[in-house]
Amino acid sequence: MTTTHEEENKMAASDVDVSSSIDQNEDRIEELTDEELYNLVEETLQANNVLKNETNMFEKYLKRVDTKDSTGTGTMLVQAVQEQTTSRTFRKRTRSRGQSVDRNLKLTAEQKCDIAQRELEELKEEIEKLKDESERILDNYKAIMEEADIQIAETKKASYEFNRDIVQGSVNARTSKIIAEKVVRYFEDKIRSRDTLIEKLRLKNSTFRVQKKKLQMQLKQKEEMGEVLHEVDFNQLKIENQQYLEKIDDRNKDLLRLKLMTGNVLQVLNTYKKKLHTLTVESAQLKQEISSRTELLSRIDTETRLVEKERTKALELNQKRRQQLSDYKVPEVLDYVKERASLYELNKTVRMWERKVEIAEMALNTYRKTWKQIQTHNSMASWFSNERREPQQT
User: Fold this and answer.
1) What φ, ψ does residue 178 adopt, rounded to 5°?
2) What was the pLDDT predicted at 229?
3) d(CA 186, CA 194)
4) In terms of Cα–Cα distance, which of 266, 256, 265, 261 is closest to 150?
5) I need a labelling partner for 191 at 20 to 30 A (CA). Which of 17, 80, 266, 312 fits?
6) Where is the composition biased (Low complexity) (predicted)?
7) What are the structural domain ranges in the chain?
8) CA–CA separation, 120 vs 1, rounded Å?
């Protein structure tokens, strides 16, 4: 307030100085040089700017002046300005250019301070209104963002459940296609759950409406009984409301933190699920490999038993051969020579008999040919004899 009064006093003093300098310059305008005229024009422009700002502020003030103002400050200020206007007269002086200049009406420092104070209060009220409106809009946007986050989370959850239960869990092993009955059942369950949620919200809404009617009736009864809330009660309610808003803000922060934790947990869960899927596939491959290795091991065991049997037989045969070798005695050299001589004689006899057999076979073949010729000759002779008998009989 003190700073505002000082500024207004300075502005009023500057206005008085400018007006006095203008009066003095009008008396000796013809004696001024170009530089002095330039300075005079600059001072006049500055004074005009100051008066223009004051006029704009005063016009805004007059537009907002309420005729029902309890203090009557605005009405008194307007009356003072009107009296000042009627009491002053416009002086005209002849200049070199032949134009007339009107005297400007000035406000006192107290009036300027009052106007500035009222403008400041109005600006503060407008700022508070804009702040409240901005907070309300910001709260609406926050609520919309939270609702969007909840919808996104629900959509992701529904998509994950659909992929888990339908896309991956409802595939026919034979045709590798999704079973339609499970898809229809899944959507029917979802629609049924949504209908249940809608019914719950409808009941909750009706309950809130009943509570609202009860509160309105209680408020109406209090107004009829004269139990009107005073400013202290409103202040207490504002304090409680502020406390509740702080609690709600804390709960929202906790909820946001829990949502972030839930998102992180879901990411970790998806990572572990991917690892589990990979390990499951690897486990299936290992089981298949173990079964194949087990079959191979069983075949190897069977072959091992067969080889063991053959090895046992071979060992027995080897033992017999070793026994025979151990029992074998080398004959004398003379006996060996005799045996070789007898073998030579036997081979010679065999070759001789083979030669005799060949000669006998050759003789047999000759006899067979002769026999065939005799049979052929006899058959021809019998045929000719038969041919001769037939004409004689005829």
Assistant:
1) -75, 135
2) 54
3) 12
4) 256
5) 266
6) 12-21
7) 42-59+109-169, 176-228, 341-370
8) 11
